[in-house]
């Protein structure tokens, strides 16, 4: 199955590399998401910040996002299959992959999305 055929999270939340972790934490809580794309001043995605990354620090107040966000940004084409997504997540020990069409972000695939898909079969 193509990952582009899954019900991806298409409302993607962003934070800037210059924002603090507290800003990101508040956004995650408010929107009930476990990851935020980190964009530079030209709005180009550069990294991903996950709730798991946030567990690495004891305070989020004055910590810049750029110091903690996961890099490199792992992406897959929407034409990639589920096996490729699972392999990439396992290889990098991550739970989120950014799905792209050409170079444009079209969604974020999480390990929970994959579990939900397999449970629906």
UniProtKB/TrEMBL annotation:
Alphabetical UniProt keywords: CBS domain
Domain spans labelled CBS: 8-65, 69-121
PANTHER family with a match to the protein in the record: CBS DOMAIN-CONTAINING PROTEIN CBSX3, MITOCHONDRIAL (PTHR43080), OS02G0818000 PROTEIN (PTHR43080:SF29)
PROSITE patterns the UniProt entry points to: CBS
Originating organism: Bowmanella pacifica
Name of this chain's protein: CBS domain-containing protein
SUPFAM superfamilies (alphabetical): CBS-domain pair (SSF54631)
InterPro entries the record matches: CBS_dom, CBS_dom_sf, Diverse_CBS-Domain
